[in-house]
Amino acid sequence: MPISSLSVDxxxxxxxxxxxxxxxxxxxxxxxxxxxNATSANTVALCFPERRRTEMRxxxxxxxxxxxxxxxxxxENFLSEELxxxxxxxxxxxxxQISGGIHQVYKYAIEAYIDQKPPYNLVNKVSPIxxxxxxxxxxxxxxxxxxxxxxxxxxxxxxxxxxNIR
Length: 166
Fold this sequence. Notes:
single chain; elongated; 4 helices; mainly alpha
């Protein structure tokens, strides 16, 4: 017989009220407490993923600026000799424009991932940025697109390293 269905008879055959059985009273209070804890545990379990996503968003977005800057240094170091070799005017390449566009792309990607948005939502938001960055960078010399590609690559690699993803 379940404890919750137990009851205490308040009247005795001699007319005196029975003292409630201590074990039955304890069992009823214990069951109420367990049910209450189960409800609060479920609430905590449901809130954990949301809290984790919020913490991850803050961590990723706060480090994105420095990652973008470091990625630009790597890009420039890697491609600077190629500029000279191919005779590309270094003044045609605007580092702020390239790293700014890629920064926006990664910012939208982080937010879409954390907010669990569908992939097409990210594509619709990012495509115009990538297209405009590409258009502006390649307007005078199409070979400068390598800077966009390498900036995108190094930023992605740095993001994975920051998150310990291989």
